Amino acid sequence: MSSTAGHRWGRPADAPGSGWAVVDVETSGFRPGQARIVSIAALALSDDGNVEKSFYSLLDPGVDPGPTHVHGLTAEMLAGQPTFADVAGDLVEVLRGRTLVAHNVGFDYSFLAAEAEMVSAELPVETVMCTVELGRRLDLGLENLKLETLAAHWGVTQMRPHDALDDAMVLAQILKPVLVRAREHRKWLPVHPVSRRTWPNGRVTHDELRPLKAVAARTPCPYANPGRFVAGRPLVQGMRVALAAEVGHTHEELIERILHAGLAYTEAVDAHTSLVVCDDVPDQGKGYQAGELGVPLLSAPEFLRGLESVVGGADIEEFTDTSAADDQFTLF
């Protein structure tokens, strides 16, 4: 069941998409708009992960190249190379109509968006996906989710770490089996929308890439809160759902499903909370607070099963007092 909320966060791994653009950038520093991109690689992939086209270039950043010991690029090597403005058209053709994918996508996307703003170019990027978060959802049992760790896990050879082209090719090779595993385990892909970017005073602001919890907690639900969940009855759109720390799924994936189903995500446990998702009986935190307030607990597996048959809720508009329309008062 789809939510009528403004943003649509995430999608089932078996749902069709329009393809991927795997991107990696090496930079002269860490602050977009001040530090610059010194090399860039982008690979256009089909929805099932097969490479269709590619783009790679060193860039003359016009500033000191920064950590040469990391990316291996010196000022002499970059002098006379194309600028971002020179390659923007080629990059746009790889990105167009696809979801931008990167390992820690907030970093790469912010640098691309800042560079595009500086040359008055527009990135044709509507959605992004972070493979760090995707890897976190797959329960791989790895020590960490660094690119080199994932590469070793999937048997992908990494020749030159922190080389934009090599890192992009490694990520593209990893993405294909990752997508297969996500489909097999019925995971949701962390595909998130992006919106207009502005860079006042040389600083990047990209609210659309804030942590999902911060955005979801402020996203108004179009349905009235029907009250507490009752065991044995279905979930109802508008129910306010909190997540305890003690769950076996990532909070991001659960929040995506909450919003998609027309439920409301809340970070607080109070008298208005309909249920708390919690896999254990804790002695602290949100699960404990729920017990104190009599708020029902549901395990993550039970909650996910409940999401398959959510009952339609009452629209907020149904609570508008039409007799006082001239006064423009809305009763909730």
TrEMBL record:
Respond yes or no to whether keyword Nuclease is given for this record: yes
Superkingdom classification of source: Bacteria
Q: What would be one Gene Ontology cellular-component term for the protein?
A: cytosol
Kindly state which keywords UniProt assigns to this record, in alphabetical order: Exonuclease, Hydrolase, Nuclease
Keyword Nuclease found: yes
Instruction: State a single Gene Ontology molecular function.
Output: DNA binding
Question: Record's InterPro entries?
Answer: BRCT_dom_sf, DnaQ, Ribonucl_H, RNaseH-like_sf, RNaseH_sf
Q: Taking every annotated instance into account, which residue ranges of this chain make up the domain Exonuclease?
A: 19-184
Query: One GO biological process from the UniProt record?
Result: DNA replication
Q: Which SMART domains match?
A: EXOIII
Name of the protein this chain belongs to: Exonuclease, DNA polymerase III, epsilon subunit family
